Amino acid sequence: MFIQILPLTCVCFSQVELYRRLRIVGQALLTLGMMSPSGHLMNDLTVKKQRPTAYQVSYTPPEKGDHTLVIRWGTDDIPGSPFTIHVS
Question: How many CA atoms does the CB half-sphere of 73 hold within 13 Å?
Fold first, then answer.
């Protein structure tokens, strides 16, 4: 499995688009979750499949600090998950 996430830093209240490339084998459900620094789940994540191995994740961070992005393939975290995205 290969993963690439860009960017890892962003600005508060500005829409962020994370581009992800995955090379995954088998059948499972891809799930994503984002938590703010204050512990709130972010419900406004938008995920669009760009190609069979590429996804675009968009969200607008409501507060500054380190946000946590969890990505799972089936019931397993993908390598590197959870990811930290710093919002300034």
Answer: 14
